Task: structure prediction
Amino acid sequence: MPAKFQKKLTKILVSILFGLLILSFAVWGIGDIFRGEGLNATVVRVGEQKIDYVEVQNILQQRMSNLRQQLGSDITLEDLRSLGFVDRTIQQVIARSLFEEKARQMGLAVTREQVAGEIQNQPAFQGPTGRFDPNQFRFFLRTSGITEQRFVGEITSDLQRERLIRAVSSGVAAPTELAKRIYAFRNETRVARIAEVPFESLDDIPQPDDATLVKYYEDNPTLYEAPEYRAVTLVQLRPERLAEEIAISEEELREAFDSRREEFETPERRHVRQIVFENESAAQDATARLREGVSFETVAQEATGSEPVDLGLLTRGDLPDGLQEAAFSIGEGEISDPAQSDFGWHVMQITEIQPGETVSFEAVRDDLREDLALREAVDDAVSIANQLDDELAAGATMEEAAASLGLRVKKIPAISRNGNAPSGEAVEGLPPVAEIAPVIFDTPSGEQSLLQETSDGGYFVLRVDGVQPPDVRPFDKVRDQVLNDWLADQRSERARQRAEIIAQAVRNGQDFEKTAEEAGLDSRLSEPIGRQDADPAGTGTAQLTGALFGLEKNEVATVVGADRAVVAQLVDIQPADPARAPDEVTALQGQLSQAMMSDLVAQYGEALRNQFTVSVNRRLLDEILATYY
Result:
């Protein structure tokens, strides 16, 4: 073939392939990139703030994962829409963004130190000693799939938003009279005369024939339905198991202890109160009066017109350089010499000293060994997981890949969505059920899942070997259960009828105690019953509380619980006196104030909707949802 013709043919073929590639992009929805959209396209816009495709996708993915853990992995797009999941999530994103946009517009600043302090104080990032552990933080970022920059940005936005919310809601207080009335309503109690008909006392129910049981079985099929079970082959990497085989030398333990010594030291903390003066002369005069015996509160009131400023428990590093020595060179109860900061001259009082503490190497040796071994195991797990993934990608079966890497293969004959075997017992030795069950029930029969990472740094891959669909168990397999259920229903109905006969007699004017006695039942007067009582008078029937609080005095009601029917007559109503519980009324007032603040913030959020332009690109939102279904 002539070279010139060969080049021309090659050019034609490349053009065709390139055209097909562009066409495939369009088919798969990537054509938006060529129209200026794609992954950076704005899905939600609030004022000048843009929430792009990737961020909305991440938010929906996380919320969807949480929902599937609660409702099951077979939830469909139609289910999500009928639940209002998508719209509710987007509205939450908008509400959050409105406050962030207003905070940005107002120039509410958050310092790097404030952001760092917020991150360091989060319990999830604390090490064995209760102090911030950078490795825990990095592990969180890695398992969450977000960058440090993004996380810091989210914390910054949270702090800005909280600052704005505090400004909006400060000063809101519920009226004392409202708190008193609600207290009186909640704490009213009632006394009733009660008689009970235990189901177990009704032992004269004749045994039913099979025709009766079959009809009951057919009328209540869901009671006898076996869940879907799946047969699974599982290979998993568990860091804690790898850690058992990792040896940590004494030298490594010592080096770790020395490098992380701050984690094992609790600094001295002091409870500091202060008065701030404009000049040194005023601070010196105040110090002299304090040392003459005048109270700290009196001097603060005279100098500033308010109470002393309570700084709480602080370490030396929590104070500005100019105040550290003054506060940490005096004893408990003593007054400091005046000390200067950028805010003025400070006179401080120490009301409590909590001594610092250093934990010895021996005390934390085992924790260090476990921590170091687990960290090394997590790294090893990543390496082995990559090898496992490579083996599977090269065409090896799970069994072959596991054998080449020395991993165990676990065969699970049958497992339900809640992690149980057909016997009802939990299948042991699995990753968390909330993480593995969705994978098991999303993987088609005969197919293998992708390699999955677990929240504890482990990995697993599985194959679904078979599916046993949910089905109603045969009657002969559940006959005993059907019989017990039928008898329970019969006892419940007969107990209700006996209780209702007594109730009707009392309504017709008969004496409750005498009527119950004639029916062969004991009656008793209850202790006072409150609105929140879950088991009033020890009857095991939570419904009785609601029934009693719907009655007028001397009226009667019946309820049926799990093992008895109860008939009760209301004989006394005992009002609650708010004047006898001032502390509880104050606490309730605080709760009401908090609820009012929440309502005010919600109303402010609605006002922000009118201030800022809000838009949602529904087409892009539908594209995101389509990636899941």
About this structure: Residues 1-36 have pLDDT under 50 and may be disordered. DSSP finds 22 helices and 20 strands in the chain. The longest strand covers residues 344-354. The radius of gyration is 35 Å.
